[in-house]
Write a sequence for this structure.
């Protein structure tokens, strides 16, 4: 299993569960960004979501994603997985609460470490 991680608002995830369709709308481009390493998660969380409440971290099995996945560089030649099209919900195998620390920054959830190997 290749793990992809995605940060989103809990309300967006709940809407996706009701409609059975999730399509990230946080980027203006086609495709939406995900992370594949702990450092990417923390960098994205602290840059784009600093001090935001009500977030969840979706753990996605890339082998089950039906839409096209492209690994593309968006900063400093680092590759991030982008999913082009809707995310099929059965590819999401775990949803974790993802809340900031008291100073507004995020730490990587330890529950995911076992899936990283």
């Amino acid at each position: 299993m290749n793990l992809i991680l995605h940060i989103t608002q809990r309300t967006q995830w709940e809407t996706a569960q009701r409609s059975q369709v999730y399509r990230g709308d946080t980027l203006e481009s086609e495709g939406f960004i995900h992370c594949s390493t702990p450092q990417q998660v923390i960098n994205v969380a602290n840059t784009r979501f600093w001090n935001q409440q009500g977030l969840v971290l979706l753990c996605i099995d890339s082998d089950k994603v039906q839409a096209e996945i492209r690994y593309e560089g968006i900063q400093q030649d680092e590759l991030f997985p982008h999913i082009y099209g809707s995310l099929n919900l059965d590819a999401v195998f775990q949803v974790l609460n993802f809340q900031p620390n008291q100073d507004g920054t995020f730490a990587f959830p330890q529950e995911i470490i076992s899936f990283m190997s």
Q: What stands out?
A: Residues 3-115 form a domain with the ADP-ribosylation fold fold (CATH 3.20.170.20).
